[in-house]
Amino acid sequence: MNKIEKISNFLVENNAEMTFITNPTTLNYLTGLLIDPHERIAGLMVFKDKAPMLFTPALEVEKAKKETTGFDVFGYQDSENPWQVIKANVADLTVNKLAVEFADIPLSKTEGLKSAFTGVEFINLTPLIERMRLIKSDDEIQKMIISGDYADKAFEIGFQYASTEKTETDVVAKIEYELKRMGVPQMSFDTIVLTGDRASDPHGEPEEINIQDKKLLLFDLGVMKNGYASDATRTISIGQPSDFDADIHKIVLEAQMTAQEFVKPGVTANEIDKIARDVITKAGYGEYFVHRTGHGIGMDVHEFPSLGGSEDMTIEKGMCFSIEPGIYIPGKVGVRIEDCVYVTDTKAESFTKTNKDLMIF
To answer: Strand pairing of 215-221 and 228-229?
Structure first.
């Protein structure tokens, strides 16, 4: 059963007439079309018993026709009301129930759909899409291996370039410039390079601050290549670190590797989180591990599932997710070590291979 058929079956099971899917990543996943309509409207309409439709701004219609198969494509001019154009193109259909991704549809779009389909009831398509994207195919995993290889190249560039004569933003610029030269279209998120105690902010932003001597230096980075993301973190040292900083790194590394080695089909997401958290708590730093152990990854850098979130789930072959414990002590030190992995029949394999030991530069 293909992806569109799964959605059609969902509509039948839930007595809904159609979908309107607007998330650009979901559109790409389901159709192969990658566009960003910005403030304009683009969406995928799947029905129970007729061919699916793609709706795009007029300037994207030809691209959609060239890059997709099996979809009726229509569009709208900027001078037109998109919701009325949609209504006109499904005039033969009475829409009482409409499936949308609750996790990714703003109020403006739900109000627009209400204006086209009076009295419509919305049902949530997000759990189905999450489940469909959860298990990666062999082709998807191969693409993510390539993205992971570029993340390793990024680490190598950053490690060699970093010095006390450079700022955090200098190093970020060097990494991103060199990856552009390699043909990487974009990073999967804003590259993070943080020196010393500035890394105690888990989502700190690089600034024009010189890299400190005899202090740890945190790199968190990833790329988007062939439509798939990578994400990894390493913490190195510029000069000989203090014994305290080195010890914190050792604890985080033990937590990360212990959790990663635990992964196999049949264990649960929360068990993986507990394995990492127990190592850090036993060492006396549990209060400084302030986030979940991991998140799913694929076409988005953060996606379903969550490891250590409010919901638990059993790990299956083909799942891909991060394992990234950290210790963040304000005013002192921040260490995070992260690999994203894919689950095989028996274990987890990492997309990134860069040394995780405390390297001194």
So the answer is: unpaired
